[in-house]
């Protein structure tokens, strides 16, 4: 239809001519303006905004100063840092499969899979390799680029055949063109090297919370044991995925403590998952007061400010967030979601739902193996305009844009 063609043309011209305006607007609102907006913390904001790469010597005081800034200033500054290191439209879609459910000997007081709590969960054995690879293929065909496999184990001691099967899963996931991640509990250096040789992309082992709050949540393994596993993973050359769970009855100081732990590791984690507690009946934390969204957003924005290259992952609990809350997280630096049928034992937003959300907000699935890097902001604007131009050219008004 001619009228549709004309409207599409006008839209394209408007976008094209706005590119130079956007470039000017960006340079006018660059470091100085964003930093002075956060006037109470302008020095530490300026340092974070001007960072040309990750730094690992943050003090707790510096992180607390960023964390406690006025939230809209903090979110804006975090979005600015995000755009300097990442394509702000790209969101990584990951699917997490439980490859061995329940029966775990640990006492993590939020977890349905601990054998110490009556949660009604039925324990299973390790899934067969072909069933896992069939699920990975479904995830890939629906748009996921990372496939994560979780087993409810304390550690890998004495699990030789289990490790052999998991290595076969990792190899199969890679053959499908997907990034692979596993979470299997504590790992020694030899096991980490074996997984690296199998081609494992990343290993997840969360520190969960601050060192101070940790003993109130878990008593069967120490904070330092967690850090040792993370160290074994990093030394083996596997990317580290480590983050936290918000809403375990902790305080704002504990969020700062969690962020301090991960941002002062010898290298920042490649991936920082942000979970919010999904209360499970039968676990000790079932009746804990739910965390407020502003604290979640504050934690994500602070993580982006102090770990500019990490992938920040909206993990468990996302299913309870409205779309608008999720988008606010993306604007403040989150750039990955778990998507699919289930997330371990809890519900998860599905692929179709997420892709529809992406379309509405001009987001798109991140490709596999994208490396963050310092970007020229004017290039970012140019790239975004080209992307929009391509979208406008490919659709008629009144129809949804495809990504
Ligand atoms: S180690 Fe993992 S599976 Fe076991 S109780 Fe803790 S969180 Fe649950």
TrEMBL record:
<dbReference type="InterPro" id="IPR013785">
    <property type="entry name" value="Aldolase_TIM"/>
</dbReference>
<dbReference type="Pfam" id="PF04055">
    <property type="entry name" value="Radical_SAM"/>
</dbReference>
<dbReference type="GO" id="GO:0051539">
    <property type="term" value="F:4 iron, 4 sulfur cluster binding"/>
</dbReference>
<dbReference type="InterPro" id="IPR024177">
    <property type="entry name" value="Biotin_synthase"/>
</dbReference>
<keyword id="KW-0496">Mitochondrion</keyword>
<comment type="similarity">
    <text>Belongs to the radical SAM superfamily. Biotin synthase family.</text>
</comment>
<dbReference type="InterPro" id="IPR058240">
    <property type="entry name" value="rSAM_sf"/>
</dbReference>
<dbReference type="InterPro" id="IPR007197">
    <property type="entry name" value="rSAM"/>
</dbReference>
<dbReference type="GO" id="GO:0046872">
    <property type="term" value="F:metal ion binding"/>
</dbReference>
<protein>
    <recommendedName>
        <fullName>biotin synthase</fullName>
        <ecNumber>2.8.1.6</ecNumber>
    </recommendedName>
</protein>
<keyword id="KW-0093">Biotin biosynthesis</keyword>
<dbReference type="Pfam" id="PF06968">
    <property type="entry name" value="BATS"/>
</dbReference>
<dbReference type="GO" id="GO:0004076">
    <property type="term" value="F:biotin synthase activity"/>
</dbReference>
<keyword id="KW-0004">4Fe-4S</keyword>
<feature type="domain" description="Radical SAM core">
    <location>
        <begin position="89"/>
        <end position="318"/>
    </location>
</feature>
<dbReference type="GO" id="GO:0005739">
    <property type="term" value="C:mitochondrion"/>
</dbReference>
<dbReference type="InterPro" id="IPR002684">
    <property type="entry name" value="Biotin_synth/BioAB"/>
</dbReference>
<dbReference type="GO" id="GO:0051537">
    <property type="term" value="F:2 iron, 2 sulfur cluster binding"/>
</dbReference>
<keyword id="KW-0479">Metal-binding</keyword>
<keyword id="KW-0949">S-adenosyl-L-methionine</keyword>
<keyword id="KW-0408">Iron</keyword>
<dbReference type="GO" id="GO:0009102">
    <property type="term" value="P:biotin biosynthetic process"/>
</dbReference>
<dbReference type="InterPro" id="IPR010722">
    <property type="entry name" value="BATS_dom"/>
</dbReference>
<keyword id="KW-0411">Iron-sulfur</keyword>
<keyword id="KW-0808">Transferase</keyword>
<dbReference type="InterPro" id="IPR006638">
    <property type="entry name" value="Elp3/MiaA/NifB-like_rSAM"/>
</dbReference>
<comment type="pathway">
    <text>Cofactor biosynthesis; biotin biosynthesis; biotin from 7,8-diaminononanoate: step 2/2.</text>
</comment>
<keyword id="KW-0001">2Fe-2S</keyword>
